[in-house]
Write a structure and sequence with these properties.
Layout (H helix, E strand, L loop, with lengths): L3 E6 L3 H10 L5 E7 L7 H5 L3 E3 L3 H4 L6 E4 L6 H10 L3 E5 L6 H14 L3 E4 L6 H11 L6 E9 L6 H6 L3 H4 L2 H11 L3 E9 L4 H5 L5 E8 L4 E7 L7 E8 L2 E5 L9 E2 L4 E2 L7 H4 L1 H17 L7 H20 L3 E2 L6
Parallel strand pairs: 1-2, 1-4, 2-3, 4-5, 5-6, 7-10
Antiparallel strand pairs: 7-11, 8-9, 8-15, 9-10, 11-12, 13-14
């Protein structure tokens, strides 16, 4: 099997997650890492051939087949356009961009250059979530009527991160917006939002909320509700429920251990895994495998550029609903 050479753009936390996984794949070679804070010592630290601060070193390298974009969101569209024009396949962390115009420019650059593009919504590749999707799509519970998603972090991020995150809908709930479309095989056409700053007053002062509920209306007439909190004291709370005419499907929390203790005084169970890197460790690996499979087999990626665009549009509609106190329609046309 031909070795696929990868250029990693960005070297932060999520990039290092991807790097660790890719180094386990015999048919993948991370050749170059580009980061504005790059140091020569990183060659030995990360075990790669080249370290650079100039991203064109990656785009101009004919040996590099694909790039992973793991940089701040406001750089994603420009890097996507450069990568597409250089003929590189693209894995881009979410969100795919910050504004509609530049996102569509990047989208059309990908189409024009006929390169693969996968959006980094790793939760699609979690085995439990994927099982719910497959069962629902097979009509195991008949027509899908109601979707419920709970997604709560164990603690809020630092305030500096909050200020540049794009807000809870773009930074955190965007994963859930993608899961809503994924689980229901349907488009979200309208949203209504409640939100407040109940965890940390600094988050409110920064113009964001830390607790939110969004109601969804799907094109089919089905309904959904997503709740987010920046602080769940018991751990990383990740639950999905799909209710249909013939039954219900659930993907529940993954505890540290699967042993329950029953006594006369109490019933105890393991607490949920504490952080997203632990909860979705396998999902990160699975999404990377799927990306390379799409390249080798010349098949569409399992989480497309369109998926990234639609999640952003739902997030923008949710934010607008919070600001206006009104229901907001989601733009479903991509031109």
């Amino acid at each position: 099997m031909k070795i696929l050479n990868v250029g990693m753009i960005g070297a932060g936390r999520v990039a290092q997650v991807h790097l660790g996984n890719l180094k386990q794949m015999k048919e993948i070679k991370v050749k170059t890492i580009c980061d504005i804070f790059a140091e020569d010592s990183w060659k030995e630290r990360f075990g790669v051939e080249k370290i650079t601060k100039d991203v064109t070193d990656i785009f101009n390298d004919p040996e590099i087949d694909a790039v992973f974009i793991c940089t701040p969101t406001d750089t994603h569209t420009d890097l996507t356009i450069q990568a597409a024009n250089a003929g590189k396949h693209i894995f881009c962390e979410k969100p795919v961009g910050t504004d509609e115009g530049s996102i569509l420019d990047a989208y059309h650059a990908v189409l024009a250059n006929n390169v693969k593009f996968q959006t980094g919504f790793n939760r699609r590749f979690d085995k439990s979530h994927e099982k719910v999707k497959l069962e629902a799509a097979s009509q195991a519970i008949g027509e899908r009527h109601i979707l419920k998603i709970t997604s709560r972090d164990p603690e809020p991020p630092n305030i500096d991160y909050v200020k540049r995150s794009g807000g809870i809908f773009m930074d955190m709930m965007i994963h859930d917006f993608d899961m809503a479309r994924f689980m229901m095989d349907d488009e979200v056409e309208e949203v209504f939002t409640y939100g407040n700053s109940l965890v940390d007053p600094e988050i409110g002062a920064a113009g964001d909320v830390d607790t939110a509920i969004v109601s969804l209306k799907f094109k089919s007439g089905a309904m959904g509700v997503i709740d987010n909190s920046r602080k769940a004291v018991y751990g990383y709370d990740q639950r999905i429920e799909v209710f249909g005419e013939k039954g219900m499907l659930q993907s529940l929390n993954q505890p540290d251990y699967h042993v329950n203790r029953y006594t006369a005084q109490s019933v105890e169970a393991g607490t949920p895994k504490y952080f997203f890197l632990e909860r979705y460790e396998d999902a990160f690996f699975n999404e990377e495998v799927a990306f390379f499979d799409s390249i080798r087999q010349d098949q569409p990626t399992k989480c497309s550029f369109k998926d990234g665009i639609m999640a952003i549009r739902i997030a923008e509609a949710a934010r607008k609903s919070l600001e206006t106190g009104e229901k907001v329609a989601v733009n479903l046309e991509i031109n």
